[in-house]
User: Fold this.
Amino acid sequence: MRFVSNLFQSLSISARVMLSTASAVIILLLWIILFSVDRQEKTIMAQNERTMTMMVTNVISALHTIMKAGYANIAHDFVTDIRSDKNIIDFKILRSNGQEAFLDNKSIEAVNRRLGEQEFLARDSEETRQVLDPKDPDLLWVNTNLRLLPRYLKGEDNRDLLIYLAPVMNGEKCYHCHGSDQELRGVVQLTTSLTQAELDIAQTRFQASIIASVAVLILLLLLYLMIRYTLVRPLGHVRDAMEMVTGGRLDMTIKVPGRDEISEIAKSFNMMIFKLRETYEGLRREQDKLSTIILGALDGIVVTDGQQRVVLVNPSAERILGKSVKQIIDGGWETIIDDPSYMNAVLNRRGREIPDLVVYNNRAIKIHGATLYDDQKSPIGSSFMFRDVTEEKKLEDKLRLHAITDVLTQVYNRRFVDESLIKEVSRAQRYNHFFGFILFDVDHFKKFNDSYGHDQGDRVLQAIGRAMKEHFRTVDFPCRFGGEEFCVLLPDTSVTGTFVVAERFRRRVENMVVDGLKVTVSIGIVAMPACEVKNPEELIKKADDALYEAKRNGRNQVCSATPVMDEELPEDMVDILEKQASRLGQ
Assistant:
């Protein structure tokens, strides 16, 4: 059954409609023909039965006439003549007990006794032949109902036979010879063949088969033509139009000739094409907009599909990454910046803080990635955006540097000093690290301004700034504290180291000549953790006190707010400390 179902489903719709319709119509037509043939067969059999019944009736009537006319002696000859009829196989006159009459002298002797004379001559030879059993139900039925009874039986040669049992009644004219005590004189058994009827039935069946075959062929032809021109061809037009639409033709329409279901399908198809055309045009416009945006975007864009294959790369991505479209597509999204682990982290953040700024090919690039999902939470692709922020970072660094740089001297400004001191003091306190702080100003700076003008004073300050940037380490922070005051932050520097660095810088400035003028500085230093301070303000206050101590002691020297270990100093530095100590003692 499943095979038949699959085979049926594999057929075209026209073949299925043709097969279904033809099967239904053929079954109905065959049923009508079989019904008609059956009715015709029954009619033939009924007609044959009526004919035979009429013949039996006529035979009995003739037999009655012979008997009534007093010619009983020729009844046997009459029976013999009846049997010679080609349509009659057998003809017998039976007594009511099923014995065949006219074979013995019982009836003759009875009649002669009733008449009292030898009216009929006895037969020379007698025979008793029991044709039917006295208890035969059909015989009993005829004896009881006194009516003709046809019955159909199979003969010895397996032929169908029609056998009549007809009663021979005892009438008034028979009383003279047979008396009136019995109503039934006997039974006539006439056997006829159904061969002719069967031939007629066979001919009827043959004719019906011919008619059915012709009708089926004509019907199939009409069905084929009707289905072809009313179903297959219109559906074929719809199919051809759909194939063209599948191929990209959206200008197809189907003619709507009628008002049937196929016409409705055609109308729906035309409406669908119209809507598709509108949608396509809208999508194309949106695609043009999107393409313009993507292709013209300054940011790089890389898009993947549901299988995470790169399907779109815009020109900016090529420019920013320094790779061709083929390289990006072939390499996959994981190797866009040659760092698969970072790209996976960008795409699967999972709440972790991932830096979005990387340096690649000497460019500062901000990267953002996200996976897109449909309504069923299934991934449909991923997108990555790359923004070249190299110039912005340069500008940002420049602005930041400008914000923390003194314009005149090009060293860090007071804002930087305040921010950095908070961090460095806190770090030194938390981890017990060394931290040195130098605070100095230019000796007699007012004299430069008053004697030589402010421009000369600015040039002196600029020379001091250049000397600071050249003298101190890259990890140190030279700053302008305000006016002619400067300071230096020395991370991870002990008291001794701070003193040595400050003294060497003082000597460098002492050896400077600015526009033919000599310049000196007075310096105060403080260092942690040797000097305990609570906050940056206290640190500055101690350094400032040491600075003023240096000024009071004659300027052009270094004073420390923290004792310095002599054994750690060079010999010349020890001499300096001894001189300072002697002056302090005086």
In short: The radius of gyration is 68 Å.
